[in-house]
């Protein structure tokens, strides 16, 4: 009995016979069949090559041929499909993909050159993302209108160049793959392939018994942008991560002792000071209009080659202006880098680690941005009519606020040399300014004895907090954004409840003017420093419990603050840092 051959074998035999009759070489024929018999090294190599070329080709393809309407429909279809997934856990996992896909889809539309359609797409769908982090980034994204704008926005550029990590279980990954196979638009698959890293979580047999499986995914990492590459897993996974984080904080993040940095031989000249967020640099401003920068720990301050390529900003100083400006960078005998450019007293400093910049404000009415890779002044921000006393930066350093002798506060961004908002209403100098943790509001304290709360978005005055008996010099929001602390010349700390607009308590004990106040990251302590060099730590549990219990409170007698004598002639700054929740004090001797 003759075995019947398959149709494909008949076709192959016919082609091979034809090639032989035409005298073609046949030794290379059907070599593709050998691909099914590769070893592991060959498979890995081929997969890597295919992945690399396909990503590049997909980017080119999408940038040239993207159909805005079709892309919008594909996004809406994906969103609708996710919303009807019956399994709630799978639905929540899959919906974690919508945010990065939405952001990258907007940027792809800009790449395609259809600006109006892209803006309409952003406005239509941006309200679907409600978390504070998402809202803040979408606000930054809404100011990007071209490919060139991406490079000028550090957060957006970081989001575009770094992969967004999303946790998906095996079941969720299978569902997504099935959907994309059947309905996936090329632009959606390109975004997932190029800009998103899907971390597949494997299930174990213990999960059948109700135990929580061990996650074999990587921990998320913080990148620049203040953008956080974070997994989207929610429900049980998120609760477990929050529990693990709480345990870690209890075990390893207890309050550290006060760390004191002293600047010697600078009693009369030092006017402000600050430690960088990474605690690797110390910057001090002086009444001589200089800024001195010291390395902390094992850090070495090295001036890099100015010829290195960098993206220019719209607010960069022109080469002609730099040439005519009498400023220079030198190294002092004490090993400090000296930044010169201001013409009067330097009053406040802020580090912007995302773009490696130091900001400074001065009595010369200007704010300056200094590049920390070559220690040059890269931009000058002008807008105030009188000396600038204070400054603060919002979360992710998207915005800068300044307060001045001209009785106004102003809102800035790094890429504009003019103010974005003017907050007018105080009757005397604005001595201090602070952004709310959600970056939607900012508070100002003044010599007119009031604290005012403003809307960052429209500049409207929202609240006026009264109760202080003298000039206010310092402000601090609680990390949860519920309370506001202020202190100044009357030697008391006033704490207001933002929800009720009422004065919650008044903390007394200092013998001299209070110049610095800050809230610990766990909300348990308020740190304050006065001109006599005394630092006090006030426990917050009592008045917070009083508030939650429903009764009002004035001065609470049960508080017993910890007292530290720094023996400093003056204290330049007092701040809690995220690194180990440590309290850092900078003083002069």
Automatic annotation (TrEMBL):
<dbReference type="GO" id="GO:0005634">
    <property type="term" value="C:nucleus"/>
</dbReference>
<feature type="repeat" description="WD">
    <location>
        <begin position="381"/>
        <end position="415"/>
    </location>
</feature>
<keyword id="KW-0539">Nucleus</keyword>
<feature type="repeat" description="WD">
    <location>
        <begin position="423"/>
        <end position="464"/>
    </location>
</feature>
<dbReference type="InterPro" id="IPR037264">
    <property type="entry name" value="TFIID_NTD2_sf"/>
</dbReference>
<feature type="domain" description="TFIID subunit TAF5 NTD2">
    <location>
        <begin position="70"/>
        <end position="196"/>
    </location>
</feature>
<comment type="similarity">
    <text>Belongs to the WD repeat TAF5 family.</text>
</comment>
<keyword id="KW-0805">Transcription regulation</keyword>
<protein>
    <submittedName>
        <fullName>TAF5L factor</fullName>
    </submittedName>
</protein>
<dbReference type="InterPro" id="IPR007582">
    <property type="entry name" value="TFIID_NTD2"/>
</dbReference>
<dbReference type="InterPro" id="IPR036322">
    <property type="entry name" value="WD40_repeat_dom_sf"/>
</dbReference>
<feature type="repeat" description="WD">
    <location>
        <begin position="339"/>
        <end position="380"/>
    </location>
</feature>
<dbReference type="Pfam" id="PF00400">
    <property type="entry name" value="WD40"/>
</dbReference>
<keyword id="KW-0853">WD repeat</keyword>
<feature type="repeat" description="WD">
    <location>
        <begin position="507"/>
        <end position="538"/>
    </location>
</feature>
<feature type="repeat" description="WD">
    <location>
        <begin position="465"/>
        <end position="506"/>
    </location>
</feature>
<dbReference type="InterPro" id="IPR020472">
    <property type="entry name" value="WD40_PAC1"/>
</dbReference>
<keyword id="KW-0804">Transcription</keyword>
<keyword id="KW-0677">Repeat</keyword>
<dbReference type="InterPro" id="IPR015943">
    <property type="entry name" value="WD40/YVTN_repeat-like_dom_sf"/>
</dbReference>
<dbReference type="InterPro" id="IPR019775">
    <property type="entry name" value="WD40_repeat_CS"/>
</dbReference>
<dbReference type="Pfam" id="PF04494">
    <property type="entry name" value="TFIID_NTD2"/>
</dbReference>
<dbReference type="InterPro" id="IPR001680">
    <property type="entry name" value="WD40_rpt"/>
</dbReference>
């Amino acid at each position: 009995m003759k075995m019947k051959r398959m149709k494909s074998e008949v076709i192959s035999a016919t082609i091979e016979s034809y090639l032989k009759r035409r005298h073609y070489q046949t030794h290379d024929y059907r070599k593709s069949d050998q691909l099914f018999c590769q070893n592991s090294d060959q498979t890995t190599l081929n997969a890597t090559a295919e992945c690399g070329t396909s990503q590049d080709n997909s980017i080119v393809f999408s940038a040239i041929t993207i159909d805005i309407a079709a892309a919008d429909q594909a996004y809406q279809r994906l969103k609708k499909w996710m919303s009807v997934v019956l399994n709630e856990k799978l639905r929540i996992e899959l919906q974690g993909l919508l945010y990065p896909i939405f952001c990258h889809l907007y940027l792809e539309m800009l790449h395609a050159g259809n600006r109006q359609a892209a803006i309409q797409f952003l406005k239509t769908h941006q309200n679907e993302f409600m978390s504070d982090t998402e809202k803040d980034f979408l606000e930054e994204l809404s100011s990007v209108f071209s490919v060139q704008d991406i490079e000028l926005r550090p957060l957006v550029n970081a989001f575009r160049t770094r992969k967004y990590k999303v946790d998906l279980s095996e079941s969720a990954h299978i569902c997504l793959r099935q959907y994309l196979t059947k309905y996936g638009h090329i632009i959606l698959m390109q975004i997932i392939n190029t800009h998103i890293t899907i971390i597949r979580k494997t299930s174990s047999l213990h999960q059948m018994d109700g135990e929580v499986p061990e996650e074999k995914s990587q921990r998320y990492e913080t990148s620049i942008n203040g953008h956080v590459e974070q997994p989207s897993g929610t429900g049980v996974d998120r609760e477990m991560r929050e529990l693990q984080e709480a345990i870690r904080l209890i075990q390893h993040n207890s309050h550290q002792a006060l760390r004191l940095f002293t600047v010697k031989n600078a009693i009369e000249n030092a006017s402000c000071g600050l430690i960088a967020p990474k605690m690797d640099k110390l910057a001090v401003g002086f009444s001589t209009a200089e800024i001195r920068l010291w390395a902390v720990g094992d850090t070495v301050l090295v001036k890099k080659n100015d010829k290195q390529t960098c993206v220019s900003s719209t607010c960069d100083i022109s080469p002609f202006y730099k040439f005519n400006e009498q400023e220079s960078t030198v190294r002092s005998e004490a090993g400090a880098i000296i930044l010169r450019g201001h013409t009067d007293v330097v009053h406040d400093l802020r580090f912007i680690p995302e773009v490696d910049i130091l900001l400074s404000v001065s009595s010369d009415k200007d704010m300056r941005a200094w590049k920390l890779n070559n220690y040059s002044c890269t931009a000058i921000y002008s807008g105030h009519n009188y000396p600038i006393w204070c400054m603060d930066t919002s979360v992710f350093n998207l915005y800068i606020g300044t307060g001045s002798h001209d009785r106004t506060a102003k809102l800035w961004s790094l890429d504009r040399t003019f103010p974005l908002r003017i907050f007018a209403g105080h009757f005397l100098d604005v001595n201090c300014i602070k952004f709310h943790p959600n970056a939607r509001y900012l508070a100002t304290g003044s010599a007119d004895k009031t604290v005012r709360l403003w809307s960052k978005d429209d500049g409207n005055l929202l609240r006026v907090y009264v109760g202080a008996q003298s000039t206010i010099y310092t402000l601090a929001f609680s990390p949860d954004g519920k309370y506001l602390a202020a202190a100044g010349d009357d030697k008391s700390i006033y704490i207001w409840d933002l929800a009720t607009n009422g004065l919650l308590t008044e903390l007394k004990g200092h013998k001299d003017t209070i110049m610095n106040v800050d809230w610990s990251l766990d909300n348990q302590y308020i740190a304050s420093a006065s001109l006599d060099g005394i630092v006090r730590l006030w426990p917050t549990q009592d008045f917070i419990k009083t508030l939650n219990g429903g009764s009002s409170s004035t001065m609470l007698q049960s508080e017993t603050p910890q007292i530290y004598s720094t023996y400093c002639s003056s204290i330049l700054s007092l701040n809690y840092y995220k690194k180990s929740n440590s309290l850092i004090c900078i003083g002069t001797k």
